[in-house]
Design brief:
The complex is a heterotrimer of chains A (360), B (325) and C (467).
Chain A: E1 42-53, E2 56-67, E3 71-75, H1 82-89, E4 97-102, E5 105-106, H2 112-117, E6 120-122, H3 135-142, H4 151-154, H5 157-177, H6 193-205, E7 211-215, H7 223-238, E8 242-246, H8 250-256, E9 259-264, E10 267-272, H9 274-279, H10 281-289, H11 296-309, H12 313-324, H13 327-330, H14 336-344
Parallel strand pairs in A: 3-8, 3-9, 6-7, 7-8
Antiparallel strand pairs in A: 1-2, 1-4, 4-5, 9-10
Helix pairs in contact in A: 3-6, 11-12
Chain B: H1 6-11, H2 17-35, H3 43-59, H4 65-87, H5 92-110, H6 116-119, H7 130-134, E1 143-145, E2 148-150, H8 152-176, H9 179-189, H10 191-196, H11 201-224, H12 236-249, H13 255-280, H14 288-291, H15 294-309
Antiparallel strand pairs in B: 1-2
Helix pairs in contact in B: 2-8, 2-11, 2-12, 2-13, 3-4, 3-5, 3-11, 4-11, 8-11, 9-11, 12-13, 12-15, 13-15
Chain C: H1 12-28, E1 47-55, E2 62-63, E3 68-73, E4 76-81, E5 87-92, E6 96-102, E7 111-112, E8 120-125, E9 132-140, H2 141-148, H3 172-208, H4 215-232, H5 237-265, H6 270-292, E10 305-309, E11 312-315, H7 316-338, H8 340-350, H9 352-357, H10 362-387, H11 394-409, H12 414-431, H13 440-454
Parallel strand pairs in C: 1-9
Antiparallel strand pairs in C: 1-2, 1-5, 3-4, 3-6, 6-8, 7-9, 10-11
Helix pairs in contact in C: 3-7, 3-8, 3-10, 3-11, 3-12, 4-5, 4-6, 4-10, 4-11, 5-10, 7-8, 7-10, 8-10, 11-12, 11-13, 12-13
Classes of the chains: A alpha/beta (360), B mainly alpha (325), C alpha+beta (467).
C-alpha cells in the first residue's frame, strides 16, 4: 500500500488557478494542489481530527478545508470514514482529538443541535424522515426560532399562530419546488425512498443553512429522480449556500462537484478538481487497492439484494454500518488479535432497535 | 345461590378517585411514552414522590393545601431531573431500567425505620386530606349515586378530580398540537433527525419527563385524599397497570388513557367480583387467598395481548402506533 | 375540620431540598444507630433469629403460644411474643451477639425449662444467617427438678438479667473486621448466584435485543422446583437442583417456542417485546402465588458452618452454591469461547445480520440461548432458594439487582454481566453493614445510576457507533 504523502501525488501539475471543471468564476485554491491544501475562502477548516473505534482508526484527518460557496464532494471507498467524519464535524460523534472551525468559530465539542443552529445542517445516509408526522409537519419541524416550541407559549396558540402561518407558507413553497406539495398532508412514511431523500433535503433548507452536508443524497434514489435532485443541489449553490456531500456515484460527482476530497482509511489522500482527481493513481489505488483483500463485493451485493427484497431500513442500515466498519478487517493483519479480543466481549451494541429479521 | 350484588357497585368504578388517579397518571405516561417515546417504567415512583411530598408537608409541617400541592409538584420535578440527567442522553432502555429502579428505591427508602417519623414507615401517612376537606363547599350529608352512598367529602374529591382530568386532557391536547408537540413526536421516532434540525433534544425530553411526572403526581394526590398514603400501593405493579391502561386506550391519544382507566377498573372489579362469586359457589377451585392474584394474571395477559395484537389501543390509529408490529 | 397546625415553615423550597437530600444522604451515610424499638421485618432482614417455645412434657412437642420474647443487643431491643405455632422470627439489624430472653411467668404452671436451657441466653448471628434457632423446650416441672438434681441449684424461674455464658467483649475495630469479611464472602456468593441469572439476561439481550423483564420468573421457577422436589417430593438436594436446572432449561425453551419465536416471526419491535415480557412476568409471578401461596418457603438445610476461616463461617449450602456457580460459569465461558455454538452465539451477539449472512442459523442460536438462559436461571433460583428462602416473587425481587449487574457490566456483554454481578453482590452485602436491611438494594441501584453517569456503556461495554 503506497504511503499517501502529499508529495507523491502528481495533482500539483494542475498548478494554481486552474479552470478545469470549475463551474463558476471564483478560484478555489491559490497554491499547488495537495491533500489538505488551503483554500482561498474556506468555510470549514478541520485540523488533526482523529477518531478510534477500539484499536481501529476510523478517521485521521490532518488538515482539510472546505471552500465557501462551492459544491464539494467527499468520496472514497467504503469504510474510508466519510460518514464518521460527517458525524464528527456535526457533533453527532466525539473525536478522540482534533479541532475544527466553521466560519471562523470553533465547533469542537459543540453539540449537534447547536451546530445546526449555526447554519451547518446535515442529512443522513439513511433518510431520517419522520414517518409518523405528515410531510408538512416534517417541514415545519425544520424551521428555527419557533416561539411555539417553548413550553409555556406552546399552550397559547395566539402567540405563535402568525409565525406558524409564515412557516407553513415557506414550507409549501419549498415542497412545491421539490414536487412534494401534493403529498403535504400524507404521513411521510407513505413516501418512496427517493421522495424521502427530497423531503429530508427540503426540511434541512427550512432553517436557511449556510453549509448543507448531504450524506449520500443519491443512495436509493430512483433514476427518474436523480436528475431533479442534481438540479436541487446546484440550486443550493446558486442561492449562495455551500454544499459538502458524500457520494459513491462518480457520474454525479463529475457533474456537479466543484471540488473533490478523497478519503481512504480515515485519511485525506487526495484533493482536486473532479476531472484531475478521477485520474489520480492515488485515488484509483485507494478505491481498488484498499479492498482487494476484503469481501467488499459480498457486502455491497448483500445490500443491493436487501434493498431489492425490501428488507427493513434498519437492516440495511446495519449492513451499511458493517461496510463502514470494514476498516476493522482491512487494517493490518496484526489487528487480528484485537478483533478476536473484541469478539470475546460479545458486545451487544449493534442491533439495538431492530427486531429479528425472521424469514422472508 | 350466587350473590351478584357486586355488579351495580362496579359501575361506581367509573367515577371513583382511583380511576381518576390512574387516568391522570396514565395521561402522564402518554406524554412520556406515547408522544415522546420515553420508556418510563417508574411512573409509580413519580406518583409516590409527589404523594409523599404532599402528605409530609401537609401533615408534618402543616403546609396549607396550595403549598402542599406546590411541594408535590416541586418534588416530582426534582425526581424527574434526578432520573433524567443520567439517562436521557443514553439509549431508551437505560431510562426504563433506571426509572423502574428509582421507583423501587423510593418505596424501600420511605419504609426505612430511620425515616419513620417523617414517612410513617410501612404504615404510610394518614390525614393529609384535612386541608382539602376544609374547603369543601358541598353540604354535609350522604349522597347516593347508583347504589353506592357517598359522603360530601367523597363527592368533593370526585368532582375536583374529574375537573383536573378534564383540564389535564385539554393541556396535553393543546401541547401536542403545538410546535412543542411536533418536536417531541419527532424525537420519539428519531431523535438524531430532530437534533440535526437544531433542536435541543435533551431539553425537550427532560421537559416531557417532568410534565408526565407532574401529571402522575396529581393523580397520586387524588388517590390519597379519600384514603391514605400507603407505600406499597406504588410498587412496580402500579406502573404496569398504568401501562396497560395507556395501551388499552391508545398511547398516542388524549382520551385513550382516560377511557382506558375507566375500562380497566370496571373490568378489574368485575373480574374480582365474578371470581369471588364463582369460588364461593365452588365453581372455581380458588381459596380466599388465591383470588387476589387472579387480577394480576388478567392484567399481565391483557398487556401481552394488547401490545401484540392491538398496539394502537381502542382509540389510536394503527399508523400512529409508532411501535406497531 | 382543621389539622393541628404546626409552625408553617417559610422556606418551602429549602425544606424540600433538604428532605430530598435526607433521603439520599440516608442511603449514603452510615446509619449507625438503629431505632431502638422498631422491629425489623424478618422477610426483608438479612439476618434473623427464630425463637421457638415448645411444650414437651408429653411428646410429641406441642407449641406454646403467646410467650413474651425479648431480643436485645447492639442497641437493638424488641419485645414480641410467640405465635400460635409457638414460634416467632425476629429480624436483627446486623450480625452479632444477641440476648434472647423469654418471660417464663407466662408459661402454663407445671412446665419448666430443663436446667441446661436458660430463659435468657446469647445467640450468635453470623452474616447472612437467617432463622438462627433459639429453642425453649419445656418439660414438666417435676422432670426439670429431677434432671437438675445432679447439677444442683439451677433455677427455672424467670431471670431478668442477661446471663451470658460467653460474654462477647470485642472492641469496635475488631467488630468491623468481624463484619466486613463475612459480608465480602457472602457478597461474593450472592454475586455468583446473581451472575447465573445475569448471564442469561445478557445473552438474550445480546442475541435478540430484548431486555427480558420476565427473567426473574425463570429464577423463581428454579427455586420453586427445588422446593417442590426436596419438600413435596422428597428427593436429595443435589437431585432437586439438577431437576431445577433441567426444568429451567425446558421453561426457557418452551417460552421461546410459545411466545418469543412467534413474535419474532411477526416482526414485533423491541419495545412491544419488552412490554410483553413485563406482562408475562406479572402473569407468571401471580400464577406462582396462586400455586405456592404468598409466604416464603424454607428449604431443608443445615445452618452450621462447614468452613470457618477467621471470622468467616460458610454454611455447607453456601459453600456448595459457590462451587456449583463457579463450575457453571466456567462451563459457560468454555462453551462460548471453544465450541462452535458458542462462537456462533458471540457472532450473533456481535452483529446479527452479518452472522446470518455468513450462514449462521440465527434462530437456532437464539433458541439455544433461551434454553441455556432458562437453565442457568433455574440453577441460580435453586441455589438462591438454599442461600435464603424461596417465595412466589423472589426472582422479581432480585430482578433489579440483575439489571443493575448487567447494566454495570455493559448491556449485552457476557463477562460484563459476571463482573457486574460480583460488584452488585458485594455492594448489597457490604453496604448492609451500615444500611438498614430494606435499603440493601438501594445502594446497588445508586451505584448503577452513578456508573451510567460516568461510563454509560458499562464497565466492559463499548460505545455505540452513530449513523
Amino acid at each position: 500500500m503506497p504511503d499517501p504523502t502529499p508529495e507523491t501525488t502528481d495533482s500539483e501539475t494542475t498548478g494554481t488557478v486552474s479552470t478545469g471543471t470549475v463551474t463558476d468564476a471564483s478560484p478555489i485554491v491559490a497554491e499547488p494542489i495537495r491533500p489538505g491544501v488551503p483554500k482561498v475562502d474556506p468555510i470549514l477548516i478541520a485540523d488533526g481530527v482523529v477518531r478510534h473505534f477500539g484499536g481501529n482508526v476510523a478517521v485521521d484527518v490532518a488538515h482539510v478545508e472546505v471552500p465557501r460557496g462551492k459544491i464539494t464532494a467527499l468520496i472514497g471507498p467504503n469504510g474510508a470514514g466519510k460518514t464518521t467524519f460527517f458525524n464528527l464535524l456535526t457533533g453527532f460523534d466525539k473525536p478522540n482529538s482534533g479541532a475544527w472551525t466553521f466560519q471562523g468559530h470553533s465547533l469542537a465539542g459543540v453539540p449537534p443541535h447547536k451546530v445546526a443552529r449555526r447554519g451547518m445542517v446535515r442529512t443522513f445516509q439513511l433518510t431520517k424522515s419522520l414517518g409518523l408526522l405528515s410531510v408538512l409537519e416534517n417541514m415545519r419541524l425544520g424551521a428555527t426560532k419557533q416561539l411555539g416550541e417553548r413550553f409555556i407559549p406552546s399552550l397559547m396558540p395566539f402567540l405563535w399562530s402568525a409565525q406558524e402561518k409564515a412557516i407553513t407558507e415557506k414550507a409549501m413553497e419549498l415542497l412545491a419546488r421539490f414536487k412534494l406539495d401534493a403529498k403535504a398532508d400524507d404521513y411521510a412514511a407513505s413516501l418512496s425512498g427517493g421522495q424521502r431523500k427530497l423531503l429530508e433535503m427540503a426540511r434541512a433548507l427550512m432553517s436557511d443553512p449556510t453549509l448543507v452536508m448531504l450524506d449520500e443524497p443519491m443512495a436509493g434514489v430512483n433514476p427518474a429522480l436523480t436528475q431533479s435532485l442534481l438540479g436541487h443541489i446546484l440550486n443550493l449553490k446558486r442561492e449562495g449556500m455551500t454544499v459538502l456531500f458524500v457520494e459513491h456515484d462518480m457520474h454525479m460527482v463529475q457533474t456537479i462537484a466543484d471540488w473533490v476530497i478523497v478519503m481512504a482509511e480515515g485519511k485525506v489522500v487526495a484533493e482536486g478538481y473532479p476531472r484531475e482527481v478521477m485520474g489520480d493513481p492515488a485515488v484509483i489505488d485507494a478505491y481498488l487497492g484498499a479492498h482487494h483483500d476484503t469481501d467488499l463485493g459480498t457486502l455491497t451485493g448483500q445490500l443491493a439484494v436487501a434493498e431489492e427484497v425490501g428488507v427493513s431500513g434498519d437492516l440495511i442500515e446495519q449492513i451499511e454500518g458493517e461496510i463502514e466498519a470494514e476498516p476493522n478487517l482491512a487494517a493490518e493483519p496484526a489487528n487480528e488479535s484485537a478483533v478476536e479480543l473484541e469478539e470475546e466481549e460479545a458486545p451487544g451494541g449493534a442491533s439495538v432497535d431492530e427486531p429479528e429479521e425472521g424469514e422472508k | 345461590m350466587l350473590d351478584w350484588t357486586f355488579l351495580p357497585l362496579t359501575l361506581n368504578q367509573i367515577i371513583s378517585p382511583q380511576t381518576i388517579a390512574y387516568a391522570l397518571a396514565a395521561l402522564g405516561l402518554t406524554v412520556h411514552f406515547g408522544y415522546s417515546g420515553l420508556l418510563n417504567f417508574g411512573q409509580a415512583g413519580f406518583m409516590s414522590v409527589g404523594a409523599y411530598f404532599f402528605a409530609i408537608t401537609a401533615t408534618r409541617f402543616g403546609f396549607p393545601l396550595w403549598a402542599s400541592v406546590l411541594a408535590a409538584l416541586v418534588g416530582s420535578t426534582a425526581f424527574a431531573f434526578l432520573l433524567g440527567i443520567p439517562t436521557l442522553r443514553l439509549r431508551a432502555d437505560y431510562l426504563s431500567i433506571v426509572t423502574i429502579a428509582a421507583a423501587e428505591i423510593i418505596r424501600y427508602t420511605v419504609q426505612t425505620p430511620n425515616l419513620t417519623a417523617l414517612t410513617g414507615g410501612s404504615d404510610g401517612i394518614n390525614g393529609s386530606e384535612a386541608g382539602f376537606e376544609a374547603i369543601n363547599p358541598i353540604p354535609d350529608r350522604v349522597y347516593k349515586i347508583g347504589v353506592q352512598p357517598y359522603t360530601n367529602d367523597d363527592l368533593w374529591v370526585i368532582i375536583v378530580g374529574w375537573v383536573l382530568v378534564g383540564a389535564a386532557a385539554l393541556f396535553v391536547w393543546q401541547l401536542m398540537r403545538s410546535p412543542w408537540g411536533r418536536i417531541v413526536k419527532g424525537i420519539r421516532e428519531d431523535e438524531d433527525a430532530v437534533r440535526a434540525l437544531g433542536k435541543n433534544v435533551y431539553s425537550f425530553k427532560m421537559q416531557a419527563l417532568i410534565i408526565g411526572g407532574v401529571l402522575g403526581t396529581l393523580g397520586a394526590i387524588i388517590n390519597i385524599l379519600p384514603t391514605s398514603l400507603q407505600p406499597d400501593n406504588y410498587g412496580t405493579q402500579t406502573t404496569f397497570f398504568l401501562w396497560t391502561i395507556m395501551l388499552l386506550g391508545g398511547a398516542t391519544t388524549v382520551l385513550g388513557p382516560i377511557i382506558g382507566a375507566i375500562i380497566f377498573w370496571v373490568v378489574l372489579s368485575l373480574s374480582d367480583g365474578f371470581i369471588a362469586v364463582l369460588s364461593t359457589a365452588n365453581i372455581v377451585p380458588l381459596s380466599q387467598v388465591q383470588q387476589g392474584p387472579v387480577r394480576f394474571i388478567i392484567v399481565g395477559v391483557a398487556l401481552m395481548l394488547l401490545v401484540v395484537f392491538r398496539p394502537q389501543g381502542i382509540f389510536g390509529k394503527k399508523k400512529e402506533a409508532y411501535f406497531s408490529a | 375540620m382543621h389539622a393541628t397546625r404546626q409552625r408553617p415553615f417559610p422556606r418551602a423550597a429549602a425544606l424540600l431540598a433538604a428532605a430530598f437530600a435526607a433521603a439520599l444522604a440516608l442511603a449514603l451515610t452510615p446509619a449507625a444507630a438503629h431505632a431502638a424499638t422498631t422491629p425489623i421485618d424478618p422477610s426483608t432482614a438479612k439476618e434473623s433469629i427464630l425463637v421457638r417455645t415448645l411444650d414437651n412434657s408429653s411428646p410429641p412437642a406441642k407449641p406454646l403460644p403467646n410467650i413474651p420474647v425479648e431480643i436485645s443487643g447492639d442497641g437493638y431491643d424488641v419485645t414480641t411474643a410467640t405465635d400460635a405455632k409457638g414460634q416467632i422470627e425476629v429480624g436483627v439489624p446486623e450480625p452479632g451477639d444477641y440476648t434472647v430472653t423469654i418471660d417464663t411467668s407466662k408459661v402454663p404452671s407445671g412446665l419448666a425449662l430443663p436446667p441446661a436451657l436458660k430463659a435468657s441466653r446469647t445467640v450468635t448471628v453470623d452474616t447472612g444467617n437467617k432463622q438462627v434457632l433459639a429453642n425453649y423446650i419445656f418439660v414438666s416441672a417435676s422432670a426439670a427438678q429431677q434432671s437438675s438434681r445432679p447439677s444442683s441449684g439451677a433455677t427455672s424461674g424467670p431471670s431478668s438479667s442477661s446471663t451470658s455464658e460467653s460474654p462477647s467483649s470485642s472492641s469496635s475495630g475488631s467488630k468491623f473486621s468481624r463484619q466486613i469479611w463475612p459480608s465480602i464472602v457472602t457478597g461474593l456468593v450472592f454475586g455468583l448466584l446473581l451472575a447465573l441469572a445475569s448471564i442469561g439476561v445478557s445473552l438474550i439481550y445480546g442475541t435478540t435485543g430484548l431486555n427480558n423483564f420476565a427473567h426473574g420468573e425463570l429464577v423463581t421457577f428454579g427455586g420453586l422446583m427445588a422446593y417442590t422436589f426436596t419438600r413435596l417430593v422428597p428427593l436429595p438436594g443435589p437431585v432437586a437442583i439438577l431437576i431445577a436446572l433441567v426444568l429451567g432449561g425446558v421453561m426457557g425453551y418452551v417460552q421461546d417456542l410459545a411466545i418469543w419465536r412467534p413474535l419474532r416471526r411477526k416482526r414485533v419491535a423491541l419495545i412491544p417485546l419488552m412490554i410483553v415480557s413485563i406482562g408475562l412476568s406479572l402473569a407468571l409471578r401471580y400464577l406462582f402465588q396462586i400455586i405456592y401461596g404468598p409466604g416464603s418457603l424454607v428449604m431443608p438445610q443445615d445452618s452450621s458452618a462447614a468452613l470457618s476461616i477467621g471470622p468467616v463461617h460458610l454454611t455447607g449450602a453456601n459453600l456448595w452454591a459457590a462451587i456449583i456457580c463457579i463450575v457453571a460459569l466456567l462451563l459457560v465461558a468454555f462453551l462460548l469461547t471453544r465450541t462452535n455454538i458458542g462462537k456462533a452465539t458471540r457472532a450473533v451477539s456481535d452483529n446479527r445480520a452479518l452472522a446470518a449472512a455468513s450462514g449462521i442459523d440465527v434462530e437456532r442460536v437464539i433458541r439455544i440461548v433461551w434454553t441455556a438462559g432458562g437453565a442457568l436461571a433455574g440453577l441460580g433460583g435453586a441455589l438462591l432458594a438454599y442461600y435464603q428462602t424461596v417465595q412466589w416473587n423472589s426472582g422479581s425481587l432480585i430482578l433489579l439487582a440483575i439489571f443493575a449487574a448487567v447494566t454495570l457490566g455493559g448491556l449485552g456483554t457476557t463477562y460484563g454481566a459476571l463482573v457486574g454481578s460480583l460488584v452488585i453482590g458485594l455492594f448489597i452485602n457490604v453496604s448492609a453493614i451500615w444500611l438498614p436491611a430494606n435499603l440493601k438494594f438501594v445502594a446497588a441501584l445508586i451505584v448503577m445510576i452513578v456508573i451510567l453517569l460516568v461510563r454509560p456503556q458499562g464497565i466492559l461495554g463499548k460505545r455505540d457507533r452513530i449513523g
